[in-house]
Amino acid sequence: MTEYGIFLPIGNGGWIMSDTAPHPQATYDYNKKAAVLAEQHGFDFIMSMGKFRGYGGTTDHWGRTLESITLMSGLAEATERVKIWATIHTNLFNPAVAAKMYTTLQQISGGRAGMNIVVGAYADEFAQMGEWDTSRDHAARYRYTEEWVTALERLWTEDSVTMDGEFVHLTDCQSRPHPDTIPTLISAGRSPAGLDFQARHCDGSFLTADDLPGLRAASDDVKSRAIAEGRSIKTYSMVTVVLDETDAKAEARRKEYGRGADVEAIVNMKTSWGLPLDRALSMTAENPEDEAFQTAVVSGSPETVTERISELVDVTGVDGLMVIFPDYHADLPVFGEAVMPALRAGAPVAVTA
Fold first, then answer.
1. β-pair partners for 298
2. Has domain 3-122+183-344 been given CATH number 3.20.20.30?
3. Which of 30, 111, 230, 259 is 20 to 30 A removed from 276 (C-alpha atoms)?
4. CA–CA gap between residue 54 and residue 64 (Å, rounded)
């Protein structure tokens, strides 16, 4: 069965970079209500990002954010069924500290905890804390994370761990109690190093692509890599849903949200990825309406949204989909009542010419 989850808006502005879109605030109360609504309406998981520096602009996008692990610990108490997936940056936490934190989250949640592992690629975000090692290139960051996760897995299962690696050094390191069940491990990234890491260690892989055939190829690729490691892995993707009574009204909403695209914040985000400023400016200028959204967008009536999501899942073969809403409190219940039952029932996929 396909899994459906939500990407919580733990940064102000949520996932649309626009001054004409709804602007969720970075508060525990807002996220708690969204999490409870997700559980009530049949979603399978809730996930939060880790973010420590925003992108400015007219909306101060993500200038205010909550911390993922502590937030999700609270939401574990506020919910009973949904899986609780929190994000950790491996360069900010010693693996022994992370092992203890997630064992605790696993107890609080009753075995629902998941760790979204982020290697760390945004220099400014970590340099502000003095935690950006300029000597580590992309390959070295993955070697570090490979050691980090190996240490984590050992600490969760062994009473004493001694390890003298390239990066991780532990001496008779103890982390008890061990979790009754190992937390779910999830990661994202499309580089060969990232996919190999996911295949060796992760239970879930979050993927993006330019189109549905590309997403199918990416899903098949990481699953094949996992099989070669004697493992299996689930694949997930993300989509922003803009719902209304009719396709025309939903499209009008989508255009209105895009109209106020916060170009400055969008450009700042792109340069944080390492893109040159002139390239970031030209990319954003080409179609700022679409650039306001950070994922692919599905807009329309409940019937249209159901059909398009069913097609996405059917064509790509992904095992799960994480949904983003402009206004979680208003939009999530509509999706839960008008779309989710049809998805669970296996809505038919329209044949396109």
1. 241
2. yes
3. 259
4. 7
